[in-house]
Amino acid sequence: MHQISLDDIRLVNQIARVGSFARAADTLSLPRPSVTRRVKQLEQFLGVSLFQRSTRKLALTPEGEAFLQHSQTIEAEWKQVTERMKTTTGEPSGRLRVSALGLFNRVIAGPVLSQFVRQYPKIDLQLKSTWSAPDATKFDVDLMLNTKPLDDKSFVNEPLSLTKRDFYASPDYLNKAGFPKDIKDLCNHDLVALNYTDLNDGEWYWQDGDQLRTLQVRSHLSLDEAEAAVQMTLLGHGICWLPDFCCQQYLDNGQLARLFDGRFGTPGPLWAIYPRTPFENHRMRLFIEMARASQLLGEPAPAKLGKSGG
């Protein structure tokens, strides 16, 4: 009689992840016919169908959804147990997959990554760039750094650092258009609209004393990449709300000016997001602490923000 093995669990998880028997077979280096056979044997043992098959797409049945909730947990816990055993017996090793917004990756790519790979040469680090908000259904890494937390109780949102955003413009633009004296004056200026993953398009924040307020942004120039927004601001196309770490070098050499004496700037947390498991991924923790200590993305977030699961 067929019994459920860890390999069966991994196979079901991979099929659900990639949405295809064939792609799952290829990524796991298995013969395609054997994948179909193993799933049929598993379904016969369970007495239910896990997948709804059609010529157009493959989908989980309700029973398959219920099975997947447990199978993903089992696989994650097994990985955590084996990783924990490895890290307690010697030098940290194994694979660490990290995803971050493209801009963050470029900022940490030099100092942090260089230090990390030199200090932990047995860890295989895979760094991916993303330009979107985190999605629990597409979370295929060990750790994600993002400005938006993940609203899912099966994930931990840990505040990593406080990334301040403020209003900037080039001196050439300000000499031509004049200096805004208040937030309300921005409606009379050209704006370079940078859209963030943690906000709705066309919205910025500004600090009004102890209150955080929303600014509705209307612009003929809208971008979703911070470096492109910085360049358009440097070229005099208007005022932009930008992360401080993107602008400091241009502020120092006089190519950009900070508006309103910085009194409307808003600090927002950068989140370290990872699956909630009984055992912590030691390699991930090493990376988080190194990124936090570097302060390249902002000062460390205060402990009072705490960790959340959604």
Features:
310 residues, alpha+beta, Arc Repressor Mutant, subunit A, D-Maltodextrin-Binding Protein, domain 2, 2 domains, 8-stranded mixed beta sheet, two-stranded antiparallel sheet, 14 strands, elongated, DNA-binding
Task: Please describe the topology of this protein.
Blueprint: H1 6-18, H2 21-27, H3 32-46, E1 51-53, E2 58-60, H4 62-87, E3 94-101, H5 102-108, H6 111-119, E4 123-130, E5 143-146, E6 155-169, H7 171-177, E7 192-194, E8 203-208, E9 211-216, E10 221-223, H8 226-234, E11 240-243, H9 244-252, E12 257-258, E13 266-275, H10 282-294, E14 299-300
Parallel strand pairs: 3-4, 3-5, 7-10
Antiparallel strand pairs: 1-2, 5-13, 6-11, 6-12, 6-13, 6-14, 8-9
Helix pairs in contact: 1-2, 1-4, 2-3
GO biological process, one term: DNA-templated transcription
Organism: Ferrimonas sediminum
Keywords: DNA-binding, Transcription, Transcription regulation
Task: Please describe what this structure looks like.
The protein is of the alpha+beta class and 310 residues long. The chain folds into two domains: 6-86, Arc Repressor Mutant, subunit A (Orthogonal Bundle); 95-310, D-Maltodextrin-Binding Protein, domain 2 (3-Layer(aba) Sandwich), CATH 3.40.190.290. It has ten helices and 14 strands. It has helices at residues 6-18, 21-27, 32-46, 62-87, 102-108, 111-119, 171-177, 226-234, 244-252, 282-294; strands at residues 51-53, 58-60, 94-101, 123-130, 143-146, 155-169, 192-194, 203-208, 211-216, 221-223, 240-243, 257-258, 266-275, 299-300. Strands 3, 4, 5, 6, 11, 12, 13 and 14 form an eight-stranded mixed β-sheet that branches. Strands 1-2 form a two-stranded antiparallel ribbon. A two-stranded parallel sheet has the order 7-10. α1 crosses α4 (62-87). The two termini are 41 Å apart. The mean pLDDT is 87.
